Amino acid sequence: MRPVIAILVATACCALAADQVFEVASIHTRTDSSGDVWTVKPFRFDFSGPNLLIENFRLVDLITFAYDIKDYELAGEPHWADIDRYNISAKAAEGVSLTPDAARPMMQALLSERFQLTVHTETKDMPVYSLVVAKDGPKFKKSALGTEKLLTLESKGKTNLITVTGGNMEQLIAEFSKRNGVDRPVIDRTGLSGNYNYRLEWGDDLGTDAGVLSIFAAFQQQLGLRLEPKRASVHVLIVDHAEKPSAN
Where do the structural domains in the chain lie, given as residue ranges? Predict the structure, then answer.
């Protein structure tokens, strides 16, 4: 067994330079829920000069952006971090033109201050699933230019349905890494780029209903993709502590 290597990640040990923090930031919780149907309205992540506008992001999404990691490289987050969604409006210093790389340390500082986030990293050898294209190729098509990014989850009894427009492979594995019936992190090995529309239906409890597919069978039959069990050495960001932000 490989040794676990722990590296502490400094989050609030010292004063940060002006170009590493947002001058102002507003955070609002937004959870869209109605009965057994959960609809996520279009995601938004826009830069405009010194301004950043984010809509419908979970804390796990904010962390993975801030630390430039994949969803499967994050562990230890509280349950609500994968459910509650946030709208954030932030502004950097005047004259700063924000880019993803420039915004990441600012987002780290914001998460530390407003979510009381503390983290550390470890390198672990762990079981994963590699997402690969099945023999006959993918069974979904690329989204048309300008397609709205939209994800809808529906639960009807023991059957689940996810419908996505404008989604990429990173978004797909985020929905099924240790979630929705998949018990391991998922690593994208499809080689597919761009945005796609797809529909996936599977069952929580297969029971005796022959018409209900497991998530693994659904991936292959409906998407033309396979989840192959593997082991991999993965750099993982561990959440040591996080709190829900206060309203503002």
Answer: 5-123+234-241, 126-233
